[in-house]
Design a protein that fits this description.
The protein is α/β, with parallel strands linked by helices and about 270 residues long. Helix content is about 50%, strand content about 15%.
């Protein structure tokens, strides 16, 4: 059995920590003895998540209710960490949103949120953390992209394009921070059995059984392992890695079929 790395002398930040993969990241880190700063916009769920993880792991947890799309993000985190005398050396940028709709039918507020959360917040947090850890000579960043970053499909324009930014930005930052001893890993998960895509529970369970989807627990464990090894990129499953090629050569008629059958008929919104 592979040895699980002890993180008892480390402190991590996890954004979007109240559900889905984010909460599993927090649980996995806590199980390894890591102190964890949970960040989310939903205060009630944040407190519930922290209470649950604390009871099950005994780990030291901190909660910070924060809207990552607001200005002043770096200063807010500086103040929070300095006030509590915390020195995080792990950052997991997990917070994100999803929608399946044509760009022209997407409200401007939603488009702004995609840009603010997936691009501005990830960039700001990564830069803030990298600058702090460069002087220390070590640290780990894990940024969550998606398999959709290779998928310019109708209905996924905002999600896929902003996730593509996260991948390219993280890959470049990986090389920039290498000489400082700070690892930067980008995770591009394929199907994960969370509530992000709105699948019914019975379909999620079926997809996990036949191997189409990964459980959030399994994905979190493997992604953290790759992060600690300072790998550039993690894509879960050989089928997902293989699908990148086939998605790239998907003919226009197939892409238009997605538009006509799903978007135009309003099956998915």
């Amino acid at each position: 059995m592979k040895k699980i790395e002890d993180l008892s002398r480390h402190c991590a930040i996890v954004t979007g920590a109240t559900g889905g993969i984010g909460s599993k990241f927090a649980v996995e880190l806590a199980k390894r003895g890591c102190e964890v700063i949970l960040i989310d916009i939903n205060e009630d769920r944040l407190l519930e998540t922290a209470d649950s993880i604390s009871k099950n792991t005994g780990a030291i947890l901190y909660v910070h209710t924060l809207d990552l799309t607001r200005p002043g993000l770096a200063k807010d985190l500086d103040d929070f960490c300095d006030d509590l005398e915390l020195n995080p050396d792990i950052l997991i940028n997990n917070a994100g949103i999803f929608s399946f709709a044509p760009v022209i039918e997407t409200k401007q507020e939603k488009i702004d949120t995609f840009i603010d959360l997936h691009i501005r917040a990830v960039t700001t947090l990564s830069r803030w953390f990298a600058r702090r850890r460069a002087n220390a000579g070590y640290g780990w960043i894990l940024n969550m992209s998606s398999m959709s970053c290779w998928m310019p499909m109708p209905g996924l324009a905002m999600y896929a394009s902003t996730k593509a930014y996260i991948r390219v930005f993280s890959r470049a930052l990986h090389y920039e921070m290498k000489d400082f001893g700070v690892g930067v890993t980008v995770a591009c998960p394929g199907g994960i059995a969370t509530d992000l895509f709105g699948l019914p529970q019975n379909l999620k369970e079926l997809a996990v059984r036949i191997g189409v989807l990964d459980t959030p627990e399994k994905f979190a464990l493997k992604a953290i392992d790759r992060m600690l090894r300072k790998k550039k990129q993690y894509i879960n499953g050989w089928l997902n890695r293989l699908s990148i090629f086939f998605v790239g050569i998907t003919p226009t008629p197939v892409r238009m079929m997605v538009k006509h059958r799903l978007l135009d008929k309003g099956i998915v919104r």
